[in-house]
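batch job 7 of whatever, protein = 2,4-dienoyl-CoA reductase [(3E)-enoyl-CoA-producing]
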Amino acid sequence: MPLKKYEYLSDVWRDGIFDNKVVFCTGGAGSICSAQVRALVHLGANACIIGRNVEKTENAAKDIATARKGAKVLGLGAVDVRKPEVLAAAAERCVKELGSIDFVIAGAAGNFLATIDQISPNALKSVIDIDVLGSYNTLKATLPYLVESAQKYKTDGTTRPKSSTGGRIIFVSATLHYTGTPLQSHVSIAKAGIDAMAVSVAIEQGPKGITSNVIAPGPIQGTEGMDRLSRKEDREKSASLIPSQRLGTVKEISDATIYLFSDTGNYVNGETIVVDGGHWRTVSID
Ligand code: HXC
């Protein structure tokens, strides 16, 4: 069932701020990324979402397209972010069919619960390949288009009548590695790499007009990651330990995304926005 508007987007944003813009998103059929893309599409963007599972990706694309009349959402399945040439072809197809890539969300991730002694070298490699190399491959495949967009929509920071931004990438990370999280060493290692990459991109590519930032979601309700990686009773316990006293929502991740991609994020580069209700800062007293 498609999300209702209030479930993926706050009322504070103005319709049309992403008119004529295109977002390219890996992991776009997942709960968090599909909400991020849906919000951007609602506000005017067209989108290309990438996934490994063909049916899931195509269905998610159709579903996201219902957010706005006339929206174009391309769902490219059978694209493994570990394969640079397949990803490059997907980026090319996106530009051919939708005209540009103005925003990128690198959201594809792999995860499971295991202690470090249970993880084989290949298991660690799989997660690093999906998360770190996959994000790198996403960046490589889209950077020329992002630079083109950044140049087109360069801003001096003054207000214009209509928001017009481009050349922005968000890496979806986590907070697991800030304190150390049991059963999640593989993901912690990978997400630390992603965080470092996002900063490097900001510093090296910033002069070309690129902004590169990280969103680090905390425990978000109703997501596959949450359902698969935690037990219901643990979720209830962890909610009571979060300063905000509840799990987060996908809407709260979408709102951070719009902040970074719209005029509101013009001067934010190389940063991490943690959206976790204060959760990670309480882990040491758990
Ligand atoms: C130990 C495991 C394992 C487990 C797989 N492996 N599951 N080891 N415990 N539970 C090992 C396998 O035995 C194998 O090693 C290696 O990992 C590769 O497994 P494959 O199944 O061949 O790989 P692949 O099909 O590429 O799958 C990758 C995956 C998988 C990461 C292992 O879980 C996956 O693709 N998941 C994608 C969906 C997903 O997880 N999305 C949620 C993201 S949420 P050997 O040595 O046997 O060859 C998220 C949130 C982060 O990331 C923040 C959380 C709060």
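notes: Residues 109-112, 114, 118-120, 122-123, 126-127, 130, 174, 176, 187, 224-225, 229 surround hexanoyl-coenzyme A (CB under 6 Å).
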